[in-house]
Design goal:
heterotrimer; A alpha/beta; B mainly alpha; C mainly alpha; A: alpha/beta; Rossmann fold; 3 domains; 6-stranded mixed sheet; 18 helices; 22 strands; B: mainly alpha; two-stranded antiparallel sheet; 71% helix
């Protein structure tokens, strides 16, 4: 029997308004890859933040190699050999790889010897088969390379227990495979890996054992070889789940084009070209899925259609009428609805009330304002109607949206966007971070809208979502559309290769 | 190892905080001020009593207090208007000077001929226009080049002071009284350009103060009911959301900064029309109305109606400072107290984000 | 231009630029830790008044008195800065308004003036000053003398500090960690660096240097106490930090540029050039705006690397 590496017993952590961990029990053995599975909000991140000393538990004990420990800070956890690779990287962008790796290490000499540091970092990277240049600045690296730097950081500090929080969310399938290999190389050396995820497939393929969390409690721990995705899904959600496809009543019918982009170019916030001659059309009632790894121009694509960003070339047209370049108001008036990736701070004004947010797109219309003054009572009635129609759970329409749950935030946003009777909807990762119930609702709403004739451009990193909803799939890679195909013929493997930069021919 | 209390994030901001924070801040400032006074060998109770007496209680004290409160109300609203948008315009000082220059120009120019009512209105408008234009330089630089408005607006204060000195002391300008040779001063305005004063319950209330109250009500309506106010709120809450719905953020920044400058400009016009009746280069620079306006805005929590109330409070403090100034009431004391008030108001804002919670019930579990 | 005039201006640029550099270098340290300090003007004035008082009242040899005065000024500046750090780091207050509150509290009509009044500092000229030295007897050497061998001890100190600060920021472990705290406190915290400690220490260091800069006014430039004698130098110093791209060397150059602008009026007037004094007085302020516009365009901003977390309070348990 293997020895216990980490044992957490009865861990409770409360935040104002929520109990994030409610008596969690969790044990990890030496030399295993142990997956921590749960929906968003199940308490996985809180638990790992407690284990790495970022949060203090309100109750409960932590044992490391059999002896009780209490971490006052991330430093004490690191010193004890627990290192974390965060989902949002903790890297200093203007620093080099080597500088990031030695940061905070007590063994670094007072005067930094750059040469020997670079050497040692290169050596370590080679040992675990990770390709990364120690002298490169972080901002020059791809997301996959940045993740390797994160792993190097904790290894350099001599971590025996590594926690990875949703590590594949930002990786191409190929990069993910490379990561899994690295993880196995580490467990082979006797290190322990805690792998946090909500993706059933990858948990099944990478882990030795799995602990499932739900609503801040431990549901149970199972050996991977004795379980199935179906059983895990049931444990995660608390009821048996049917992976239902939202059903289209009249799939991909019309040949009328509602949105067309012709040779569209634009720049990102740093002034580098983000879109290179993008051509895409969306028909009436059609759902076009845009697949791709995050950061390949998807955000710029959505923003340029929504008028939030100026294109530097090409033509964007709604029902063949060109839209004013870079004018969000013109795009809105032209019938473009937009569910942005960052719902709470772009799609909504988080500190404002539900009713203000419901009025965000039409407060300038004669319905809601006259002579520059707002008709507050109509704003309230409008919000009351939408809250009812879209079943938004909120104490009242005066509540700030930042206090609503993720699912209800998305409902507010969808309610408002659909209330403008759009012709086109650009939806960026519309279900990311939502729980299973809310995901279903959002998908149903999207399908319903398509059935009613709205052309939808669905941008998502979630291949399952794209494959189950889209009529047609395009793939983005480095600001270009590298493929355009009917959804019925596409396979996961093929899309995965295209997302990693393979050509259409090579992917076949 | 742990402190007995900890800060816990507030989810909602109860309404009572709107008045509780300023009150707590004021009391806090008085306590810290008492420590400073004690440390420097003064009796704080005695000092505070004299401030209260000279600022608010004694005969005609309120008249003087309202006189000081008038410019403070305008500079306070000036700072608050810009701060609401996240534009830290601390140029109220300079915008006030420039507004005074504009009003004095108009008063000298048409004061002898135009009807009284028209003259006064045009003086107010000139103050607004000059203040707005001077401030819009800051707004344009911020919106077009993303230039740090804090430093530019502050530099503009020094430049405005130099302009005043030039107009009165170092040139033979239109504003300077040609008869003043030895000690240069501003050319006096015609008597008929003087703004009216109203006696209300034995207290003189200047036309400027009533203008301030009117401006506060207009601003309140803008913030609560207008599209512009709605857009200002969205920009301040989330610039990205503003971009998402197509609000013209850059235009709004320039417009609001100009509006902010216009408010300070009226304050300057009122100095000419209500009180000095000439361009008083020295007097304007003596009082730091613009900087005190920042204190007013912070303590009023950026609420225009609150700015009027706070301006009267701080006006009383300042007014008492003038009349008490002497060996046992040194200059600098009032400024120190005002700084402390701002200091505690800033610290007091923490109450909107956090509340204090006892750590006792959770300490045991952690120790285990 | 007359080369002699050029030397005079350059020499006095160094003289007038020295306090600007001290205050700006303090700003570099503070801002590198992610704290914006708009209280520099107030800290300089408090440094100035406490230095003037010490110079008038501390006995012993002249050197000793001046040394004590400088230390007192630095101490006073750092105490004020610790208040700022308390507001910004511990209470996580709005750093802009917090800094303003320090300047209003301690500034020209605040505590510095109050102290000057109750201690009667302004009544006597400061006799124990920071004086220009004749280094190695080379002060009278043509050209090189006024440029290099005829400065106050503080100017030589500032040159040494410029070098040490560059080394500290870019070559040492503490400097690396300091920059990490200013760029990404989340990262620094996760790597076990004490963000709060770094921010407090460097804010206080910044305050000490601002105090030293203020002392230069009351002990060398004027040299006596006048209310509000720094006349906006603290604000120019804040602009200089941006102008110097948060690097000590460039900040030193910027300080001398503004020192030249400040001295221009005095120098040109003494040589009866016919330029209105007000224009010259306004020059540093106008130039500050021009320089800020130039460096704050979006293009420049990305390259020069302002600390990414500048002005943002760090909260760990953010959800």
């Amino acid at each position: 029997m293997a020895e216990s590496a980490v044992r957490m017993t009865g861990v409770v952590k409360r935040f104002p308004g929520v109990v994030a961990n409610d008596g969690v029990n969790f044990e990890v053995m030496k030399g295993e890859v142990h997956a921590l599975l749960g929906e968003n909000g199940a308490g996985k991140s809180t638990l790992s933040n407690i284990l790495t000393g970022l949060y203090r538990p309100d109750e409960g004990t932590i044992e490391l190699d059999g002896s009780t420990v209490s971490f006052g800070s991330p430093r004490s956890a690191l010193d004890a050999g627990i290192g974390m690779v965060h989902q949002h990287f903790r890297l200093v962008e203007p620093f080099t790889v080597a500088e990031n790796v030695i940061l905070g290490n007590p063994e670094t000499p007072f005067v930094i010897d750059t040469g020997s540091t670079v050497e040692r970092v290169a050596e370590l990277a080679k040992r675990y088969d990770m390709a990364v240049d120690p002298n490169a600045k972080i901002w020059q690296l791809s997301v996959g390379e940045q993740q390797r730097v994160e792993i190097l950081k904790v290894l350099y500090r001599g971590a025996r227990v590594l926690i990875l929080d949703e590590p594949t969310a930002v990786l191409t399938p190929i990069e993910a495979e490379a990561l899994f290999k690295t993880l196995r190389a580490m467990t082979a050396e006797g290190r322990t890996v805690i792998f946090i995820s909500h993706k059933l497939d990858e948990v099944m393929s990478v882990s030795d054992r799995i602990t499932v969390l739900r609503s801040g409690r431990t549901v149970g721990t199972v050996a991977t070889k004795d379980t199935s995705t179906r059983e895990l899904a049931g444990m995660m959600v608390g009821r048996s789940v049917e992976f239902s496809r939202a059903v289209r009543r009249n799939p991909g019918v019309s040949s009328d084009v509602v949105l067309s982009l012709t040779d569209v170019n634009c720049n990102d916030d740093r002034g580098r070209q983000a879109l290179h001659g993008v051509n895409v059309t969306v028909g009436r009632g059609e759902i076009v899925g845009v697949a791709g790894v995050a950061g390949n121009g998807q955000r710029e694509l959505a923003e340029v259609i929504a008028g939030m960003r100026s294109s530097t070339g090409g033509r964007i047209a709604i029902e063949d009428k060109p839209v004013l370049n870079g004018r969000a108001r013109a795009a809105i008036a032209g019938g473009v609805a937009h569910v942005p990736e960052d719902r709470l701070h772009t799609g909504l004004a988080a500190g404002h009330s539900v009713e203000d947010n419901m009025a965000l797109k039409n407060y300038r219309t004669p319905l809601l304002s006259r002579f520059g003054l707002l008709k507050r009572n109509i704003i309230t009635t409008q919000a009351d109607d939408l809250v009812m129609k879209y079943d938004v759970k909120t104490p009242d329409t005066g509540t700030p949206v930042r206090l609503l749950s993720g699912g209800n935030v998305q409902k507010v946003l969808l309610a408002r966007e659909f209330s403008t009777n759009p012709k086109v909807l650009v939806a960026a990762s519309p279900t990311r971070g939502l729980d299973v119930g809310a995901i279903e609702t959002v998908r149903e709403r999207l399908v319903e809208a398509a059935d009613n004739g709205v052309g939808i451009l669905l941008i998502s990193e979630d291949l399952e979502e794209i494959m189950s909803l889209a009529d047609r799939i395009v793939v983005m890679y480095e600001g270009r559309l590298v493929a355009d195909m009917p959804a019925t013929g596409a396979t996961r493997e093929q899309l995965g290769l295209l997302m990693g930069g393979a050509t259409l021919e090579a992917s076949r | 190892m742990k402190s007995p209390v900890r800060l816990e994030r507030r989810l909602e901001q109860p309404r009572w905080l709107n008045w509780a924070i300023p009150v707590i801040s004021l009391l806090g400032a008085l306590v810290v001020g008492a420590v400073v006074l004690l440390a420097t060998g003064k009796n704080p109770l005695d000092v505070y009593w004299r401030i209260l007496d000279r600022g608010f209680l004694s005969q005609r004290a309120i008249t003087g207090t309202l006189r000081t409160a008038t410019p403070l109300a305008f500079t306070g609203m000036c700072a608050a208007a810009a701060f609401r948008l996240g534009v830290i315009n601390i140029g109220g000082e300079g915008q006030l000077y420039v507004g005074a220059v504009g009003a004095a120009l108009v008063g000298l120019w048409i004061g002898g001929s135009a009807p009284v009512g028209i003259t006064i209105i045009v003086m107010v408008l000139a103050g607004m226009l000059f203040g707005a234009m001077y401030a819009s330089i800051v707004g344009i630089l911020r919106s077009q080049f993303n230039t740090n408005e804090i430093i530019t607006s502050l530099m503009m204060n020094y430049i405005a002071g130099i302009i005043l000195n030039y107009l009165i002391f170092n040139s033979r300008s239109y504003w300077r009284d040609p008869r003043s040779i030895g000690f240069p001063s501003g050319k006096p305005l015609e008597k008929r350009t003087h703004w009216p004063t109203y006696e209300i319950f034995g207290t003189s209330v200047s036309f400027g103060f009533l203008l301030a109250v009117a401006a506060a009500i207009v601003l309140w309506v803008i913030y609560k009911r207008s599209r512009l106010g709605f857009e200002i709120g969205i920009i301040a809450d989330s610039p990205r959301a503003a971009r998402y719905v197509g609000i013209r953020t850059k235009w709004t920044i320039v417009a609001v900064t100009a509006m902010s400058g216009a408010l300070a400009g009226i304050g300057g016009a009122s100095q000419v029309g209500d009180f000095a009746h000439y361009l008083d280069a020295k007097g304007l620079q003596l009082n730091n109305f613009g900087y005190t306006g920042i204190v007013v805005a912070a303590l009023a929590r950026l609420n225009p109606l609150g700015a009027i109330v706070v301006a009267v409070l701080l006006g009383g403090l300042t007014n008492a400072g003038y009349s008490l100034q002497g060996p046992d009431f040194p200059s600098g004391l009032v400024g120190t107290l005002q700084g402390l008030i701002l200091f505690t108001a800033v610290a007091g804002e923490i109450l909107t984000k956090y509340r204090l919670r006892s750590n006792r019930n959770t300490a045991k579990a952690v120790a285990a | 231009m007359n080369s002699n005039l050029f030397i005079v201006i350059a020499a006095s640029a160094i003289f007038y630029g020295t306090p600007l550099f001290f205050a700006a270098l303090g700003g570099v340290f503070t801002e590198r830790s992610g704290v914006l300090n708009l209280g520099v003007e107030g800290m300089m004035l408090i440094g100035g008044v406490t230095a003037a008082w010490s110079s008038l009242h501390v006995g012993g040899s002249a050197w000793f008195t001046v040394l004590v005065a400088l230390c007192v000024a630095m101490l006073a500046g750092s105490i004020l800065a610790s208040l700022h750090a308390f507001l910004c780091v511990t209470l996580k207050a709005n750093q802009t308004v917090a800094g303003l509150s320090i300047t209003i509290f301690a500034g020209a009509v605040g505590l510095s003036s109050y102290f000057a009044n109750i201690w009667k500092v302004a009544e006597d000229p400061v006799t124990r000053q920071v004086r220009k030295l004749d280094v190695l007897g080379l002060a009278d050497t043509p050209i090189l003398g006024p440029l290099f061998f005829n400065h106050t001890i503080l100017t030589y100190l500032s040159w040494a500090m410029c070098a040490v600060a560059s080394w500290y920021l870019f070559r040492t472990k503490i400097g690396l960690q300091l920059r990490a705290v200013g760029e990404s406190p989340q990262t620094a915290d996760a790597m076990g660096i004490n963000v709060v400690k770094y921010r407090y220490i460097h804010t206080m260091l910044g305050g000490a240097l601002a105090g030293l800069g203020g002392a230069f006014y009351s002990l060398a430039i004027v040299p006596t106490w006048v209310d509000g004698m720094t006349k906006g130098a603290g604000w120019i110093a804040i602009a200089l930090v941006i102008f110097g791209f948060w690097r000590p060397g460039l900040t030193l150059l910027g300080a001398y540029l503004f020192g030249a602008l400040q001295s221009l009026g005095t120098v040109l007037k003494s040589r009866s050039f016919d330029i209105p004094g007000d224009v010259l007085d306004a020059l540093p302020f106008v130039m500050t705006i021009v320089v800020l516009v130039l460096v704050s365009t979006r293009f420049a901003h990305k390259r020069i690397g302002a600390p990414a977390a500048l002005g943002v309070p760090y909260e760990r348990e953010e959800r």
